[in-house]
Each structure stands twice: as C-alpha cells, then as structure tokens.
C-alpha cells in the first residue's frame, strides 16, 4: 500500500514537471534588443601635401679631401711655426638653396669648415687627435627678381656666391683677383641688357657694394674707417667668345693701423703698434707693405682702384681617345691705378674639356695656366690661395679632374712658381684629392 502511494506521488510530480516544461516551450520568446545604430563615419580627411615637397629646395653637401705636398726653396721655412708643409686637408660644406626660375624671391645658405681667419682657404688640416672641426656660415643670401621677365633684372643681398664672371669652361677659372672659395658680403644688381632667344648673344652688367670689415675697435687711437668696395662688371657673349671688363674700388685698406707716437713737450701715444687689419697674421700678406714702427705695417696706398679685362674663346675639336671635346683659352689682365709700382698682373689658360656621364668618357677638364702677378695688381687677401698664395707670384699650374660618377670626382694639381718676396723664392706644390658631392 505504501509502495503504491509512493509511486502515485512520483507519477503526479513527473506530470506536473512535464506540463511546466511544455508551457515554457510554448511561451513566445522575447525578441533580442536591436544593436545600437553605429555612429556615422566621419568624412575622409582631405588629402594634404607637404609645403616643402612642392618647393624647389635642394639640399646638398660637398666633401673635399686632398693630400698636399709643398716644397719651398727656403728649407729653413720647415722649422717655422706653424709647420704647414705637407698634410691631409679637408673642406666640408653643407647647404640648402631655393631656386625657381619663376619665383620672385629665392636664395640659399651654406655652412663650411675653416675660413678663420683666411677667407680664401677653407681647407683645414687633419691630424688633431680626432677632435671635431668647427663650422660657420659661409653663405646666406636672398635673390629678388621683381620683373615679369625674371631673367632681366635681379638683386642679391647677403653673403653670396661669387657674382663676377671668371670663365665658364670646365672647372678652370681666372683666380688672379678672386679665389674660388670667396663669397663676398654686400648687395648687387644684375641686369641683362640684351639677349637673343637662342642664348648665342647676350650683354650683362653686374654692380654692387661690398663690406669687408666694420672696424670700431681703435676709436681715437688709430685708423678706424670701414673697409669696403664698390665694383662693376660688363660682360658680352657672342657665340663662343666672351669678353668682360671689371672695375674694383677698394677703400680704407689701412683701417686698423696704429703706431706709437711721441711729441716732445706735447703728447705720447703708448698703445701697442698694430698693422692694418688685412695685414695681420692669418690673412694672405703678399701685397707691398710699409712699416710704420713697432712691427706695424700698412698698404702703400689706402685705396686700390683696379681695372681688369677677361677674354675667353672655345672651339670644338675631335682628338684621339677624347673624341668630341672643346678646346678653350682664357686670358686675364689687371692694373692698379692707385700705386706707382708692382701694379700689373696677367694670366693665360689653355685647356680641354668634354665628356658625358652617358658616354664611356665621363666629364673631365685639363688645363695649363701661366700667371705673373705683381704684388699690388690685386688685393692679396682674396686672391688665389693655391698658385702663389695671394699676389707677388710668377709661375704655372697644371690641373686636371675627372668625374668617375655623377657625385664623385678625383683631381690633381701641380704648381711651379716663384713667390714673395719679389718673386725671389722657388716653390713647388703638388696635391691630389677627391670630391664627393650629393
């Protein structure tokens, strides 16, 4: 009886459970809540272009390494300090320029090692215990072309590339007045007076004002006039012949000179004697000098007014091994109207240039220069630092360079010359090096 009653209870419980399960199965299930609507996608950002990417800005660098050998006739010079005979030298430059033929304003800047204090010799000697070299601003200039025809007129202001024409065939340049490494400071006006559309004929003029040294240190004790220059060059090109006439007016060359003075019963100036600024140690000092006492020196004239003439001609030729090449001549004459002697200089260059990176023979230049420059035919401070180290030189140079690749060129030069004083000392010099630019 108890068993039957227990079985009945179990049976009833099972039925209740089954009914409950069925009821739940038939209940409508709640619909899942819809997923939230995603926020609208932001509109695509407009395409942006870097401003710098659209400007014609060129970044560049130049590494020049050369081994220099010097053989002076005066062997005692080997014992003087500093010993500058032989050595590995370098010239390092980095720059940026903005050049656009259609732009009203362009310009550039460049930093370089060396140039302290000699502006014509930016090479520094290696071998100083692996210490770094010092850089300084070598160029910083602005060009303004205000006219619609941008090639007709432009103005340059700052420390600029050499504005005066000195030859343009290969890598040979007339350096009797200006070393290749000089970047003058001032302002120039460049005017194209006439040109043919095919560029076969053109007449150009460039003139300007240049500051050499603002000198204020010796007020009331010595000469303190600012050293400056005005210059003008007229250039005519007719096909393969180019002629140029230049005039340079250097003023206050003796600025900075000071000598002791004693007037019995009146006054005495006891300041230390100093030379004119451009005749102090470190500069190229091959101009004629006058001693004013206490080892102080001045130029023979406080002004240099110098006239120059340049002429260049070229002719295409075909030579064995060199193929189609160009032979050229470059002449240079200088006369100083402000002095009575040591006032003339002349040089002549003959050379070959040719080659092409797309041909088997790559670009090259080979030239021979003979030069005789009296002491005051040019301002020695800025004259060639290789052949003669300024002025007061008579001798020749043989130079060559060859561009192995677009960015790499070895070169070599040999100099045989008679140098200062009065072109009385024989001096031989040879160097070879490599230039890497990118």
The end-to-end distance, rounded to whole angstroms, is 113 Å
Number of strand segments? 21
- CATH class categorisation of the domain at 168-437: Mainly Beta
Strand residue content: over 45%
Fill in the keyword field for this structure:
21 strands, mainly beta, Porin, disordered N terminus, globular, 47% strand, two-stranded antiparallel sheet, 438 residues, 1 helix
In short:
This protein has 438 residues and is mainly β. The protein is built from one helix and 21 strands.
Written account of the structure:
This protein is mainly beta and 438 residues long. It has a domain at 168-437: Porin, CATH 2.40.160. The protein contains one helix and 21 strands. It has one helix at residues 2-26; strands at 57-72, 87-98, 105-113, 124-125, 135-144, 153-159, 185-195, 201-213, 227-238, 241-251, 261-263, 267-269, 289-293, 296-299, 304-319, 323-336, 344-354, 364-373, 393-402, 408-419, 425-437. The protein has a 16-stranded antiparallel β-barrel. The protein has a two-stranded antiparallel sheet with strand order 11-12. It has a two-stranded antiparallel ribbon with strand order 13-14. A hairpin with a 6-residue loop joins strand 2 and strand 3. The chain is globular. The termini are far apart. The model is unreliable at 1-35 and 78-83 (pLDDT under 50).
């Amino acid at each position: 009886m108890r068993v039957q009653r227990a079985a009945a209870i179990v049976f009833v419980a099972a039925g209740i459970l089954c009914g409950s399960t069925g009821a739940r199965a038939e209940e409508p299930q709640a619909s899942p809540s819809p997923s939230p609507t995603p926020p609208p996608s932001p509109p695509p950002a407009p395409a942006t272009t870097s401003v710098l990417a659209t400007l014609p800005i060129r970044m560049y660098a130049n590494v020049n390494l050369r081994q220099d050998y010097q053989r002076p006739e005066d062997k005692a010079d080997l014992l003087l300090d500093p010993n500058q005979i032989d050595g590995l030298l370098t010239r390092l430059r980095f720059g940026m320029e903005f050049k656009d033929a259609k732009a009203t304003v362009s310009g550039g800047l460049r930093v370089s090692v060396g140039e302290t204090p000699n502006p014509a010799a930016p090479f520094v000697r290696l071998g100083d215990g692996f210490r770094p070299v010092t850089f300084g601003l070598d160029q910083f200039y602005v060009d303004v072309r205000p006219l619609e025809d941008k090639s007709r007129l432009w103005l340059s202001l700052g420390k600029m590339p050499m504005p005066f024409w000195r030859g343009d065939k290969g890598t040979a340049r007339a350096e009797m007045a200006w070393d290749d490494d000089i970047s003058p400071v001032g302002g120039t006006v460049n005017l194209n007076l006439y040109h043919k559309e095919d560029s076969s004929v053109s007449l150009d003029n460039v003139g300007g004002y240049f500051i050499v040294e603002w000198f204020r240190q010796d007020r009331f004790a010595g000469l303190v006039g600012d050293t400056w220059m005005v210059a003008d060059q007229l250039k005519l090109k007719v096909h393969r012949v180019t002629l140029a006439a230049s005039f340079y007016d250097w003023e206050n060359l003796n600025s900075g000179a000071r000598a002791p003075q004693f007037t019995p019963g009146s006054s005495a100036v006891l300041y230390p004697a100093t030379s004119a600024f451009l005749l102090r140690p470190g500069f190229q000092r091959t101009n004629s000098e006058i001693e004013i006492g206490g080892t102080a020196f001045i130029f023979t004239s406080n002004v240099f007014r110098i006239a120059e003439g340049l002429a260049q001609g070229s002719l295409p030729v075909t030579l064995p091994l060199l193929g189609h090449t160009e032979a050229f001549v470059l002449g240079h004459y200088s006369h100083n109207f402000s002095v009575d002697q040591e006032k003339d200089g002349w040089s002549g260059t003959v050379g070959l240039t040719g080659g092409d990176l797309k041909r088997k023979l790559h670009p090259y230049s080979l030239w021979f220069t003979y030069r005789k420059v009296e002491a005051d035919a040019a301002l020695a401070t800025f004259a060639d630092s290789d052949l003669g180290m300024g002025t007061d030189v008579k001798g020749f140079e043989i130079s060559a360079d060859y561009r192995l690749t677009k960015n790499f060129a070895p070169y070599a030069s040999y100099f045989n010359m008679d140098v200062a004083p009065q072109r009385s000392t024989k001096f031989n010099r040879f160097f070879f090096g490599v230039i890497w630019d990118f």
